[in-house]
Amino acid sequence: MARPLPHPHIDDVTVAGILHALSDPARLCIVSKLLTSPGGMNCTETTHKLKLTMPKSTCSQHYRILREAGLLLSVRIGVDLSSRVRDAELEARFPGLLASI
Questions:
Q1: What is the distance of C-alpha 16 from the center of its chain?
Q2: 19: how many CB neighbours lie within 10 A of its CB?
Q3: Distance from the CA of 77 to the CA of which of 17, 38, 40, 44 falls in 20 to 30 A?
Q4: Nearest Cα to Cα of residue 59 among 67, 37, 73
Q5: Predicted TM-score (pTM) of this structure
Q6: What is the dihedral of CA 38, 32, 8, 41, to 10 degrees?
Q7: 67-97: buried (b, 16+ CB within 10 Å) or exposed (e) per residue?
Q8: Band of residue 1 on the pLDDT scale cut at 50, 70, 90
Q9: Confidence of residue 56 (pLDDT cuts 50, 70, 90)
């Protein structure tokens, strides 16, 4: 059985946590790409589309940081892990934040 993925409740998400998660250029690129993919993508798809060269473990680490900051919602689909930006929830909690970043 797969481990459950921790996702903070939207009320626990902070602007400081979001800004910290997005302070890495690779994570900022990942979120920007995921914002244009409403169905979500996995690590491999994202690095391929962004033409980023990094080990899968590094990409997974970036996704974990983004998920724990409350930016991503990740869902297991078989053995795959698909992630998307929680844009509607974040827009309701912090209007205009993602667009300004």
A1: 16
A2: 12
A3: 17
A4: 67
A5: 0.91
A6: 50
A7: bbbbbbbbeeeeeebbbbbbbeebeebeeee
A8: low
A9: confident
> How many Å apart are CA 69 and CA 52, to the nearest integer?
22
Confidence of residue 54 (pLDDT cuts 50, 70, 90): confident
Four-residue CA torsion sign, 13, 18, 20, 25: positive
Question: At which residue do the structure tokens 């300004």 appear?
Answer: 100
Cα separation, 94 vs 44, whole angstroms: 29
The gap from C-alpha 71 to its chain's centroid, in whole angstroms, comes to: 5
Token duo for residue 55: 């080990």
Give the per-residue pLDDT at 91.
96
Whether 71 and 21 have beta carbons less than 8 Å apart is answered as yes
